[in-house]
Amino acid sequence: MSAQAPCPETPECSPSGMHDLAQRLFPICRSITGDGVRQTIRILQEYLPMLRMVEVPTGTQCFDWQVPEEWNISEAQLIAPNGRVIADFAVNNLHVVSYSEPVDLELSLEELQPHLHSEPNLPEAIPYITAYYKRNWGFCITHQVRQNLPQGQYRAIIRSTLKKGHLTYGELIIPGSTDREVLLSTYICHPSLANNEISGPVVTTFLARYLQALPDRRCTYRIIFIPETIGAIVYLSQHLEHLKSHVIAGFVLSCVGDDRAYSYLESRLGNTLADKVAQHVLKHLQPDYVRYSYLKRGSDERQFCWPGVDLPVCSVMRTRYGSYPEYHTSLDDLTVVTESGLQGALHVLRHCMDCLEQTLTYTTTVLCEPQLMRRQLYPTIGRKGIAAGSRVLVDIMAYSDGQHDLIDIANILGRPAWELFQAFETLHAHQLLSLPEAPPPTLAAA
Amino acid sequence: MSAQAPCPETPECSPSGMHDLAQRLFPICRSITGDGVRQTIRILQEYLPMLRMVEVPTGTQCFDWQVPEEWNISEAQLIAPNGRVIADFAVNNLHVVSYSEPVDLELSLEELQPHLHSEPNLPEAIPYITAYYKRNWGFCITHQVRQNLPQGQYRAIIRSTLKKGHLTYGELIIPGSTDREVLLSTYICHPSLANNEISGPVVTTFLARYLQALPDRRCTYRIIFIPETIGAIVYLSQHLEHLKSHVIAGFVLSCVGDDRAYSYLESRLGNTLADKVAQHVLKHLQPDYVRYSYLKRGSDERQFCWPGVDLPVCSVMRTRYGSYPEYHTSLDDLTVVTESGLQGALHVLRHCMDCLEQTLTYTTTVLCEPQLMRRQLYPTIGRKGIAAGSRVLVDIMAYSDGQHDLIDIANILGRPAWELFQAFETLHAHQLLSLPEAPPPTLAAA
Amino acid sequence: MSAQAPCPETPECSPSGMHDLAQRLFPICRSITGDGVRQTIRILQEYLPMLRMVEVPTGTQCFDWQVPEEWNISEAQLIAPNGRVIADFAVNNLHVVSYSEPVDLELSLEELQPHLHSEPNLPEAIPYITAYYKRNWGFCITHQVRQNLPQGQYRAIIRSTLKKGHLTYGELIIPGSTDREVLLSTYICHPSLANNEISGPVVTTFLARYLQALPDRRCTYRIIFIPETIGAIVYLSQHLEHLKSHVIAGFVLSCVGDDRAYSYLESRLGNTLADKVAQHVLKHLQPDYVRYSYLKRGSDERQFCWPGVDLPVCSVMRTRYGSYPEYHTSLDDLTVVTESGLQGALHVLRHCMDCLEQTLTYTTTVLCEPQLMRRQLYPTIGRKGIAAGSRVLVDIMAYSDGQHDLIDIANILGRPAWELFQAFETLHAHQLLSLPEAPPPTLAAA
User: Where is the UCP01524 winged helix-turn-helix domain (chains A, B, C) (predicted)?
Assistant: First the structure.
């Protein structure tokens, strides 16, 4: 990667068009399995042709879990005694509890009530409800509608199927010159929810395009579009050893589309390279960002950071799940997610990627300060102390002791890492810095 | 121990009656040796039949010290020229300097003065003075009396003996299912002093009864009633290797009877399990407690924490020795010590014992979050994030990485440990947590 | 060294006379090589007869550098068209750019300008300018003069030589009973500059005399008077392995003569014994001292702390280079440096030396508190807690666990180390403390 242009705004990685993609993905009815997931991945493949669709059969054991039956749904209606359609899947796919079994029943309001879900605090919102692991069915409606339901016989029709099939996920490997891997994970299992679903795959897709467009890459990028929880568990159960030995940092991309805040949710112990990079980037780009402890976790860092899994994964978000009122309701729609909201998240994450590309631990090659004048790196006339323009070079070398990586040194110097990329490159080019630690095999070849 | 009822208020361990015991013990003239110590232990044996009385002969070498001659006293009087009895051992045993040699002398006021002790700042108090290791004698009187002593010939009579005998201490071992030991140490060497003496053995006795009444115990409790300093040195010299290899935590019980404050005096480096437990319990039960550095030490933590001894011992107190005006004078009487003062200390110390019983370092047995629904530990309908009722279970597992013990996890979660005992038990019962570290032999058998 | 008198004010080390020495050294035209350095060392030899002058030939390779040609200068004048002498080396040696090549030229004002240096912000000051490593020449004048220079032909005469010769430095080894070395480094390469040159060798000289006068020494002192930067690099390149295996602490002495502030510039990582001692001494003697990060470095700690060199070196200064307006101009003269300014620095540095002499890591020899009474270290009558006069003895032993050195213990006790020297000596004399770590060979013989 060129240090001079860490964030090229080339057509390939232009953020314009993110909201367009969000609009295409929003209407699809996704769940943790089923054709909605496949349809989503197929659209993403238009942007990322190398994105591979992977199918894992129902019943596959994954640690303490099994891949559940595949769920698909074609239509669903809840019809009031007066014939009015109270809830119609065709109007909003949130109306049906995800993984509802097929039903075609007549029942009284009293019998219906246990199958109804609404949100009293947001009376105009349809809540998002799931019932993945125990057969059940239900309808989600606004609390306003629910409070005015007349007595009488209702008809509940859900045309769904629950049968052996597959769990589907997408995986894209963008190779670099080393096998140091960066893991990016986002989820594609929610129906029409915007910030807490669509923003994730959209920003991940454009971030992947940015990474693909880099002229060269030190890191290899492993980018997965998975159903939340069960998808992460499936993926980890099938790749754990590889991930543990290769991943140097990872990020869960979720809630990256609104324009209200920036936030960071630390890894379990808060001490990974991912945390260090996220904190560094946000401190310089968005100093008012909100920091959440791992106790506030809610997405796949739950699995990635689990004891024994212990991948170095944190989250960089706009407004965190659970911290905005529309969360998990029909109000989390494409008015919450904005082009500038998506762009802001992409901007921060691109800087995180840039930092991961550049963050190595160097060692000075010369004992004592080198003679910089004969390398044209120092003025020939001496005045007061270390010449200002050369100071950053000398400071970088002074802390390049094999113990401090590039981010550490940027933190010591109180400067954004990206302002130092060029200086590190210069010193490396003059052979004043070397990479002392035995590099991974492919790095040596690079 | 049942996690459901960490602090049962059963008759066996009811704190009522603590002040009654204090009243029985208060009048006895104790010193670092002698019959007062034996008499005290015999009364405690009524409450703790398994308490063993141990005699160590005069002259026994214990590290840098030797067990001194045994001191006993039957009567003592200081009589003024006019025949008035200025100080009478029968009235208050503080009137005689502890370890005074026998005398029967006539002497002038001027000759007497070096043998008189009073406290100008507390003119109505008789000070507590000792002269254990160099033959001497003396009387302690109020400063008021001292200032009005007439000239003339005084008679000083002390009927005491100083001869080969024994140092006496009490020891009670309450066995648990493991040989992880908790050391409780209190002293029985002061004459009629209440907070800075009697409160210690009284609370220790009732705490021992609480521990004996537990339906089962993981820890073994080693409870010693010793003369301060020389008793601790004797005990350590005879048990050091055992203690160093078994004691996981210990507490010195002193000044645990007044009702004015709670305090904690840290171990030498402040970093032991005893410190962690004491800090945790006090933070939740008595957040205004006073914390003292080891520089403020004054009881047997002086010996227990000595370099090379290095037992994990701290002190939990009500008002610390030296921090209340009556300390080491006749004003430290049974009005300073109250039933509620004793109860408060017992309450805190029982929670410390409960924490020590429960504090183990667990490891999750499952990679990634386990499927809690099929264990009826998670709701089958999903709404927003981790279900609230299950959150504590998941959080406990998330930090059960073999590095954080139960108290660490309670601290991370910001909750009192005892609110988590049940959850740990539940997870252990479901085999979702295990005890990864090789347990001590007897623990494996338990 | 006698603990009773850590800072004897004997004639040998009396600070009076420091300003006299400064006045002798001030007028000499020093540079990084040349006769000015030799002349300076010869004067210092009057005070330190064992000071050895060392010559290193031009062309000697030292890490990334080579010893440059030797520069000497006899006279220089810049003469205006009207015959007026604008700048005369005989009047102020700052008028000539250090290392100016010989010239004898007539040139117009326009041609002259690139060779003129002045300081617009200090219009009455002659700036100090160097051009060591690329042939050049120039004159330094006040900005006032420069602004009034008439048009016309100027004559520039510099009678200098640049040819093969030597770099000269001074070295004094003051042996102690062990080979634990303390490095003191100061520079002698600036012409007539007072605080940022002369103060360093003057205070170093008097500090060396103080050390020589000590009745005995545990440490060996290596004291070097070197040209800044190239001198340090030369010295390190020839002594690195010895220094790395022997130096326990070191100080760069620079800017130690004014009377405005005390300051401390930490070593690269701020965690060496030198840092610990400097912080301790300044905290107690000059609590308002200014602390600078290594990022503010500007003298030979640049070389001593370089990665791979990593000597434990920091700086204790009065007002730091770059932090006072006169720095590197003719205004940094002997009015900036005062006798009391020099004395204050010497006072602080002597305490640092005293601490280094005394700072060892002891271990208590006795398990549990020793019996101090029979050693006459404790009163025989006991009153409240540990007797006040003996408390410091007991506290010292309580932390003498082989992990805390004397300064650590002084910090724990909140007292200046020198107030504890006597107590450590007493305990050592009573064999209550020992030095557990295998001492260096010569220490064992001492």
Answer: 362-434
